[in-house]
Amino acid sequence: YIHIINKADMAASKGLKILVGCKRVIDYAVKVRVKPDRSGVVTEGVKHSMNPFDEIAVEEAVRMKEKKLAGEAVAISVGPPQSQETLRTALAMGIDRAIHVEIPLAQLEKLQPIHVSKLLAKVCESEKPDLVILGKQAIDDDCNQTGQMLAALLDWPQATFASKIEPSQDSKQLRVTREVDGGMETIDVSVPAVVTSDLRLNEPRYATLPNIMKAKKKPLAKMSPDQLGVDLQPRQEVISVEDPPVRKAGAKVESVEDLVGKLREKGLVK
Amino acid sequence: MLSSSRAALVAAAAKLPRLVTRYGYCTTAAGERQQQKPLSPKITTHPTRNDRAKDPRWKDIDMTRAADEADVVIVGGGPAGLSAACRLAQLNAEKGTEMRIVVLEKASSVGAHIMSGACLDPKGLVELFPDWQERGAPLHTPVTGDKFYMLTEKRAIPLPLLPGMPMHNHGNYIVRLGNVVAWLGEQAESLGVEVYPGVAAAEVLYTEDGSAVKGVATNDVGIAKDGSPKDSFERGMEFHCKQLIIAEGTHGHLAKHLINRYDLRAGREPQTYGIGFKELWELSEDRWRPGYVEHGVGWPLDSGTYGGYFIYHLNEGSPLAAVGFVVGLDYSNPYLSPFHEFQQFKHHPHVAAALTGGKRIGYGARALNEGGVQSLPKLTFPGGCLVGCTAGMINVPKVKGTHNAMKSGSLAAEAVHEAIGSGEIEPATYEEALRNSWVYKELHSVRNIRPSFHLLNGRLGMFGGMAYTGAVWYFTRGREPWTFSHGGTDHEKLLPAKDCKPKDYPKPDNVLSFDLLSSVALTSTNHDHDQPPHLTLYDDSVPGQVNLSVYDGPEQRFCPAGVYEYVELDDGSKRLQINAQNCIHCKTCDIKDPTQNINWVTPQGGEGPAYNGILIMTTELQKSPQVDMKGFLLRYETFKGRSGWKKRWAVLCDFCLYLYKEQTSKECFYALLLPNSRVTQSHDSSGQYRSSI
């Protein structure tokens, strides 16, 4: 069932209030190493940065503000104390204020999309955004679940893998172009809605020093999962994390006969 | 104004046989002058070599920069830069003055571009923060054992390490320097310094009349690979300051520019360098000897190539060891590949014994300065000064420079503070303060060791150097009245390929030795691919015409990251391809390019390697027991029928006296409970403590 808000035309209103999710992940260029006890990967001392899809989400929110489609953009991050740096980057890109839901170190490793989506849902109840933009997936777990779960918890429409967001013909809804397996799909969603960003949505701007300095003065609020009343009991248990198997050497063959001969040897061809 | 090396390059190029003139005109069969296609495809698109004012693509772009004011700007957040920042902040607190101090660091986080062994002499740290232990400085591994070896192809010959020799390391700490630098960054911030990682200082700004430095500008962002502006283009910002401290590390690019502009090397020798590699290994537990330090020379380097190795066993909970290798960049054979020499070295039976069963988890490389006092430039210029490795203060035989860097940073801070107070443009007292300090004394005493390698025209090589150190230096400690020269720049020492033998390096076995690209991947280096390569060439035609034809393209061998590649084109000719994304900011290319055609400039801030030196160990949080007193005691002991006074290390804690065989022993061998006792200071002039029971 479609949840329609009794709202004036988007163009006439103060503009949408956008909530953007950012996650602090290991930088995509870092060579990741599995911990000797195989319980996970080494994260201590390793370079971290904002999830690339979340950067795209932040950039989209800032562009919507610049186009006057949005009035206020708020960034939120669920993570350890260092997530504040990620939020400062978002603020430097043009976000107005930030919320940090701090997760104690002990529970950090067991945090899963189900918990994050519940925390975000609780924040949405108090913040009442018109649009939530999340990255489609995080590059550390590749789950691609948080946006979809959040929409279900809030009972809001969702437009995932967005490559374009614009107002619909009648300006009462959002027209989102999605990247799907068969090509591109364009749908109209009514607000409030959850949108997840895909790679081609935009190219994020750089957080330059003058903006970083200005961002220090923007408000950053802290919350805890207890305050929000969400239980962080893990629903999954990681049994082991292992390196991918070492690639075996291949063999080059000179002719088709050789190839068929080798396939026969391996019993793959009769 | 052409520098002398550029003039030499132009002269050299003029001597090359050419059918086509410099600007590409040639005479066709019909006798007409016709413009040819460019001699070589355009390689350098960077704005520092392509004036955007004349580029039509930049016509409508607003090039104004925001400007901000600070009292002192420090370029480089390493040991020298951060020590200068901390000292300045301390001076302000002491003297009640107020200053805005800004540190600009190109790495994405403080410490991420720090790549050093490192065996730290705590002198510099102790002077800056006498309470470093309470403040939690990450110095966890005191040196427990120290050895020096000479490697031949099959054997490892131990050489005596007498106290007083520069390689003797007792009292020092093995650290992960990135950790220490990150910690220094925290101290600086808590003292009120503004530290901005991810920001590269790209340009020096001058006063109207061009005589003095007035600040720096940070890098522009959003320029495409072909040099055109992207949608995300943004101009860098300017920092105007009263004093600029350059702390970029060895062969910094702004330092290079300032040294040329103010001719700071006049009357002094040029700097000479080495390239240092380091790998971090997780050893198998049975081969791990925490606190053990080993240095050595020899195989596989031939006696004419300066270099050596170190292995430092850390003691921070896991069996980690740092394996390092240095090759002097004054080598002459263009076929030499320092990276492959390093990989081969690990196969020596003595080294393989330590590493077998272990796993390589880190790799990095950086140029280091080897010139010592002979190569120190003038340290100050109107508007600022040079500190640390940027000036060149490594004690080469000791393979240590961090303590000197930190001390120079402190001294510079004092001079800068004074200069700002008195309104002087140049912090001139800095150079004199350095000359009167223990930094200069130390560098002066070892000044002849590195160049002794060149004794008898280098025929004795490493043997000559070691013989000099043992026979002369050990007795004179630098008091000998002569000073050896380095004999010219490193890049001039490279011989043409035709005069040298190609070298055949064994293939990596992926257990002890590895290939270049997988090593580069371990540095986690990255650069935005869509930006002009930051390895710029003064002349795009020189690589093909000189580097390749005369020297067989040595840059494809001395770069530890595979940035330079000569790729074959369809017509069979070779073209230089610059893989700027691989760069790990070591600066070796800028140093060793025989024609000095390569000019390294900074890429966008936040890019480059991401060395992991920052480790937050939970074992740090254990509180150390409250120690009331510690020191040496003489104890009358009987052993195997013989009695005598033996000096033992004693620790008084909680009314119990613990005795250890040595200061570094982990377990005590004797404990004496002393209830109802009090420690009082004795009144006799010998200054000894006495406790009364």
Automatic annotation (TrEMBL), chain A:
It holds the Pfam family ETF. GO terms for cellular component: mitochondrial matrix. This is Electron transfer flavoprotein subunit beta. Heterodimer composed of ETFA and ETFB. Identified in a complex that contains ETFA, ETFB and ETFRF1. Interacts with ACADM. The keyword Phosphoprotein does not apply. Belongs to the ETF beta-subunit/FixA family. One of its GO terms (biological process) is fatty acid beta-oxidation using acyl-CoA dehydrogenase. Residues 228-247 are annotated as: Disordered. Its main location: mitochondrion. It is found in: Mitochondrion matrix. PANTHER family: ELECTRON TRANSFER FLAVOPROTEIN BETA-SUBUNIT, ELECTRON TRANSFER FLAVOPROTEIN SUBUNIT BETA. Keywords: Electron transport, Transport. The keyword Transmembrane does not apply. It comes from Macrostomum lignano. One of its GO terms (molecular function) is electron transfer activity. Residues 38-232 form the Electron transfer flavoprotein alpha/beta-subunit N-terminal domain. Heterodimeric electron transfer flavoprotein that accepts electrons from several mitochondrial dehydrogenases, including acyl-CoA dehydrogenases, glutaryl-CoA and sarcosine dehydrogenase. It transfers the electrons to the main mitochondrial respiratory chain via ETF-ubiquinone oxidoreductase. Required for normal mitochondrial fatty acid oxidation and normal amino acid metabolism. ETFB binds an AMP molecule that probably has a purely structural role. The lineage of its organism: Eukaryota, Metazoa, Spiralia, Lophotrochozoa, Platyhelminthes. PROSITE patterns: ETF_BETA.
UniProtKB/TrEMBL annotation, chain B:
Residues 574-603 form the 4Fe-4S ferredoxin-type domain. PROSITE patterns: 4FE4S_FER_2, PH_DOMAIN. Its EC number is 1.5.5.1. InterPro entries: 4Fe4S_Fe-S-bd (IPR017896), ETF-QO (IPR040156), ETF-QO/FixC_UQ-bd (IPR049398), ETF-QO/FixX_C (IPR007859), FAD/NAD-bd_sf (IPR036188), PH-like_dom_sf (IPR011993), PH_domain (IPR001849). Residues 36-47 have a biased composition (Polar residues). It catalyses: a ubiquinone + reduced [electron-transfer flavoprotein] = a ubiquinol + oxidized [electron-transfer flavoprotein] + H(+). The keyword Oxidoreductase applies. Keywords: 4Fe-4S, Electron transport, FAD, Flavoprotein, Iron, Iron-sulfur, Metal-binding, Oxidoreductase, Transport, Ubiquinone. Binds 1 [4Fe-4S] cluster. Accepts electrons from ETF and reduces ubiquinone. This is Electron transfer flavoprotein-ubiquinone oxidoreductase.
